[in-house]
Structure formats: C-alpha cells, structure tokens
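**Folding the chain**
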Amino acid sequence: MAADTPAGTPATAAGGQRAATTRTTGITTVPTPAGDARVTWHPAPDPRLVLALGHGAGGGIEARDLRALAAALPARGITVALVEQPWRVAGKKLAPAPKTLDAAWTALRPALAAPGRPVVAGGRSAGARVACRTARTLGARAVLALAFPLHPPGRPEKSRAEELTGAGVPVLVVQGTRDPFGRPEEFPPGTELAAVPGGDHGFAVPKKAEVPQERALGLLTEAVAGWLDRLPEGLPAAP
C-alpha cells in the first residue's frame, strides 16, 4: 500500500534505537518507548499530505470525528493515519502521563514520514494536546486540534491555551458550540477556529438540533479539508 511502511522496513524509536516495523493489511505497528503504537492507514490514491490523528483519553480511533475525516479526506488527496497510543493497543483503560504520551507520539515520526509527503499532526481532545506539544519534535507542518480541551468543565481559570499558542506551526481548532471543555468564543483572539453548531465534546448534536448529525460532521470535514487546501505550498517543517 502506497501510504504504508513496507514490511520489514526499520523504524527509529526514541534515542536512535532501530527496530522492525511490522504490518498487516492497512496497519503499521510501530515500537515506541511506551510500547507498540498502531497506525491504521486510509490512503489517498495520489497523496499530497499525511494527516496523522490521535485519539482522546476516553476513547479510540472509532470516534465519530476521526472516522468522518478518514472517510472523506482521501478523495481530497489526504492520506489519513489514525494512531492508537500504546496504552490503548495494550488494552489499558487509563491514559499515562503527558510525558509518556508525547514520547510515544514523537517516536512515530519515521513511520509517518515513510510515504514521502508532508505530515500534518492532529487529534481529538487529549490527542490534540499531544499534537500541539510535540509539533516541532515530530516535524509537523501544521496541527489540527479537534475538540481541544481548553479547560476542565466548569474551570475556565485552568486554561491550556498556551499549548495552542506554543505549537510553533499553523493550528486549526474545530470545536463544538456546546463543548463543556471550551466553547468557540472562549478561545484566545487570533485562534483559527471552525465551529460545529450544536456539537458537544464528541461532536454529537441533539436529536432536534437545527443542524442534524450528518450535516454537522459534513461541516467538520469541509472545514478541515478547506484548511488543508489553504496551507502554503512548501510550508517548512517545524525545526
């Protein structure tokens, strides 16, 4: 598969360690300092970008927003790589500390770069925070932050805005208007943001919402596709 790492191709783990990368159909297993991560590829026929998306702390790559993007973007020339952190691969219920999440994510760099296309990092919720914190180390050209948890519910004083502003690369936030972890209007001035009407933290909308669920996800994928289309050609990777 064009977007996958060929079977037996070495991957570099943190610290320069060389280890074999194994593959089943459409899936790459990548060794990291925290254990094996798993990348499920949704390849574009002629990709111009790789969009790597991580999951949140309370779920996996089956999240509705991640599935919607994986279904819609390959036709737009974007290969989507859905990444399962080692703790999920191992069947654990609780995510580890941020330092461990970040180390596992950055160890994916050789596998994500293998298709030979620029990489945009992203994720939902806790995965968005990881992508922001590690953009430079991963060599990401930009960051897609889905349902960014700007603050714990009901605790706006506990802002995580510095993770967004400190990413060092262009960032798009996609946020539901009912997200208790931060509504669109709570984000810092200058944040590039796309709002999903009626969406909660998982981009679910009420049954009687003015914008139905399918259309809400359509707005999400359209916003992301448009933003990716507008990223400058030859945008330099983060140092």
Observations:
- The two ends are 29 Å apart (CA to CA).
- Residues 54 and 64 are 13 Å apart (CA to CA).
